[in-house]
Every structure is written in C-alpha cells, then in structure tokens.
Amino acid sequence: MTRQAPDRNLALELVRVTEAAAMAGGRWVGRGDKNGADQVAVDAMRAMLSTVSMAGVVVIGEGEKDAAPMLYNGEEVGDGTGPACDVAVDPIDGTRLTADGAAGAIAVIAVAPRGAMRDVSSVYYMEKLVAAGDVADVVDLRASAGDNIRAVARARGERPQDVTVCLLDRPRHAKLLRDVREAGARVRLITDGDVAGALMAVRPDTGVDLLLGVGGSPEGVITACAVKALGGVLQGRLSPYDADERRRALDCGFDLDTIYTADDLVAGDDVFFVATGITDGELVQGVRYGPGTARTHSLIVRGRSGTVRSVHAEHHLDRLSALGAVDYSQWLNPSEEEQ
Question: Could you report the per-residue pLDDT of 74-110, keeping only the tens digit for each?
Fold first, then answer.
C-alpha cells in the first residue's frame, strides 16, 4: 500500500499552530520567566494541534512522558484524520531569548510522513555544521573550522574575513571560537535557539554563512526538515556528554563516528517546516500586539516543491477565542490579571 503523504494544504493548518504558540509565548517576552513562557506556548500549541487534520505522533518533543509533561515523545496529536505523520515541535526555540526580550526566538513545527524522522533522543547533544546549498560540496564536519571557513570563502569568491559563523555562546565552544577568529572570520554568538541559527546559515541575506558547534540533537532533526526543504546542507555527529549516554547511544544502534546528513535524519522530501517569530530576528519579525489584535510573521516551507512562503497575519483575539481551540485570554494578558 502506498504511504499517504501530507497534503500541501496541511501547511496552512500548521502555521496556525506556530502562530498560537508565538502569540501565547510572546506576551512573556522580557518578563524573565522562561519556564512560564514555555508552558503557555506548549499549551497553545497542543490545543491548536488537536484541530489539525492528521494522525500525528510526536517524534521530537520535550522528552519522555514521565519526565516532560509537555508535548512528549510518543504523544498522539492531530484530530486523527488525514495522513499518518511524524511531528517535531519546539514551542519556543529560544526560551532564554524570550525571557530576556532578545532577538531570534521562534515557535517551530516540522511534519513528515510516519516513519520518516529518526529518533535521536537517546543522545541529547549533536555536533553540527549547517550551510547553504551552494557550498554543500565544499564543507565537511570532519575538517577544521578554519578549513571550512576558507572553503566557503573560496567557493563564493570571498575572503575568510567576509565569512560569518554562528555559534552558541557556551563554555564548550571556547576552542572553536578561538579557531574561528584565528581563521579571520566574523562571529555571531547566540545565547539560545540553534534552530534559528541554522536557518540563518541556510537562508540568504541574513549575514550568516555557517553554523558550527554542539547543540541539541532533537533540534538537529527539526533543522534537518528545514534544510531539506530549503536546499541547504546539514552534517551532524552525535556527541554524548557522559559514559551513560554513550552506552545508551550504542545500545540504540548509533555509530558515534558517523556523520549524519539531513537525509539520514529525515527520509524523503515530503516535509513541512513552519516557524513563527516570537521576538524580532533575521528570519521573521516578532509578535506585535495592539488593542485586541496581534500581528505575526511566519516562514512556511514545503520540501517537495521547495516553495517558501512568508506569511504576515493580523489576528483578532476575541474572535479567535470564540472559535474555541485556544482561549487567548488565558495567556495574552498576564499583566492585566496582576493589576
């Protein structure tokens, strides 16, 4: 029997999911409470997911059910009709960015046919290299940062000084940061949100040419969906943080020396990737609020066609709440409830 693929119309249902998460989490921007922001975004995303025409299973979520009472791995989502899908979610990619009111926080969902996404949850971290498609043949995760920077520069007729590398600002990246700077490249340090960082490396006109370093493995699968749809390159290598995690990875059949590509992490091209801005960034604008309204900006990508849509929407919050899927009054006016 032929496997049913997600229909292209699913994209417009999925953007409502990330819009709901962004509008809920957006009211918590700059409030210093990343857990509070994440919780309301999860609640809004789960509520809206229940209306989507698919029989979805969360492959990449907040962890196992007992450890993560949020959108957990294995949770069934959707209304049970339509195609059987794997679902990867990150209600807020950049919870710290949201809490601090910093740039680059997004709400994210990716969907592929059932069985397409690889479950890498046994290993929390992954070393990654992400770049645009025009340099896919010249970059290599096994090479040094300097070699990759010089390869990108040569491929584009530039100098290493023209290349910008995005890195998570973490102590584990101290040597990598020195290597990047010694190669002459510029650096974009981010405190959180390496899905957004990877997307900047793939999309044009963001000022970022490469993403390097160790980030979350679940985020690597979400990024793979976006990279496949956008035509970029992702190379990843699992990076266990201790002996117990290394043992779990080996027990799950992972080869810790293998370089995984986007195709290894997500099979086929029937993928959708949707991101809605929570705070302003290079990719999308953050949520804007007015009297009874909210404006959102989303990026919708369909893998099969390669179509990228930039969607600006204006939402009337009372009308949305009346439709019943999400009661926005719970989350969109926390300051008023405190007065």
Answer: 999 999 998 999 999 999 999 999 999 999 999 999 9
DSSP assigned state of 70: S
Please give the Cα distance from 154 to 156 (Å, whole number). Answer: 5
C-alpha 29/C-alpha 287 separation (Å) is 10
Structure tokens at 144: 């040094």
What is the model's pTM? 0.90
User: How far apart (Å, rounded) are the C-alpha atoms in residues 88 and 110?
Assistant: 5
Contact 56, 78 (CB under 8 A): yes
Helix (H/G/I), strand (E/B), else coil: 4: coil
Taking residue 333's Cβ as centre, other Cβ atoms within 10 Å add up to 14
In 3D space, the residue among 258, 235, 238 whose CA is nearest the CA of residue 123 turns out to be: 238
3-state secondary structure 206-253: CCCCEEEEEEEHHHHHHHHHHHHHHCCEEEEEECCCCHHHHHHHHHCC
Q: pLDDT tens-digit profile of 246-302?
A: 888 888 888 888 999 999 999 998 999 999 999 999 899 999 998 889 999 999 999
